[in-house]
Amino acid sequence: MGATASQLEKDIGHEFPQNEHYFGLVNFGNTCYCNSVLQALFFCRPFRERVLGYKPLSKRKESLLTCLADLFGNIASQKKKVGVLAPKKFVARLRKENELFDNYMQQDAHEFLNYLLNTIADLLQGEKAKEKDKDKHSSTSSVSSKSSVSSAGTTNGGSQQNNKTEPTWVHDIFEGILTNETRCLCCETEAQKRMRVKKLPKILALHLKRFKYMEQLQRYAKLSYRVVFPFELRLFNTSDDAINHEKLYDLVAVVIHCGSGPNRGHYITIVKSHGLWLLFDDDIVEKIEAQAIEEFYGLTSEIQKSSESGYILFYEARG
């Protein structure tokens, strides 16, 4: 691995960005689905900054988020610019929390991404609820000596608020808002219903449907359709009242599935960092040219053939 690391530094040369680190991740038998998503998220700048800045309520309680923060912090604090790290603690925690990932079968990268983000959001909401309860109890204690009516009102107000789940920074980064619109095409005769985007997310994560259940095969098969994903993207299906509807997105990461089916094959990731394109294949990191990304669009023929094709696209809002 030392030769690979030194080669990467040579390939990047004087272009190597300050305070940036390009570290491969060790594969523990079948964890390329995990490594590929973690690399993509690390190079989604808003997400990385939030994870690195996370302070848990209890330092003694381990969670998937504390393990992720430790991993990201370990990468960001390395003295070397390139190398390899083993995400042992994170993978162990993942397998402990969800039996779906506690085996040596290939898993789906998109399922893992959803599970990770939902788990982090649930954890953050739980911490917010605990902090609110703490504030509520201290507030109730301070007013109880003055008025029992006032105290009851404070308690009721607090309990009503707790029924609502507040958005977290995960929602703030990844969640947009869709709105239903019904437009009359010809009055009283026909209407068109459509979904439009009302609020654009900071990170737009797009999942390409690459697997379909084939009745004749009695299993899922890969769809290797050619999908050209642009380096720059603007969403045109925004609602009239959308905020900053002209927002432009830049492609920052692509999780790629290599192989012929969801339960076999391999995942790799390409990322854009400070104008450089890099390919992360578990513990191997290589600099690639922008035009090489065309190889991951998919196939124009034999769509059920094995291929290396884009599976999850990550776009970051500009500005």
TrEMBL record:
UniProt-listed Enzyme Commission number(s): 3.4.19.12
PROSITE patterns: USP_1 (PS00972), USP_2 (PS00973), USP_3 (PS50235)
Start-end of Basic and acidic residues biased regions: 128-138
Comp. bias intervals (Polar residues): 152-165
Keywords, comma-separated and alphabetical: Hydrolase, Protease
Molecular function terms from GO: cysteine-type deubiquitinase activity
USP domain boundaries: 23-318
Comp. bias regions, Low complexity: 139-151
Reactions catalysed, as given in the entry: Thiol-dependent hydrolysis of ester, thioester, amide, peptide and isopeptide bonds formed by the C-terminal Gly of ubiquitin (a 76-residue protein attached to proteins as an intracellular targeting signal)
InterPro entries found in the cross-reference section: Papain-like_cys_pep_sf (IPR038765), Peptidase_C19 (IPR050164), Peptidase_C19_UCH (IPR001394), USP (IPR028889), USP_CS (IPR018200)
Region described as Disordered: 128-165
Enzyme class: hydrolase
One of the protein's GO biological processes: protein deubiquitination
Xref: SUPFAM superfamilies: Cysteine proteinases
GO cellular component: cytosol; nucleus
Pfam families: UCH
Alphabetized PANTHER family for the sequence: RE52890P, UBIQUITIN CARBOXYL-TERMINAL HYDROLASE
Family: Belongs to the peptidase C19 family.
Name the record gives this protein: ubiquitinyl hydrolase 1
Native organism: Pocillopora damicornis (Cauliflower coral)
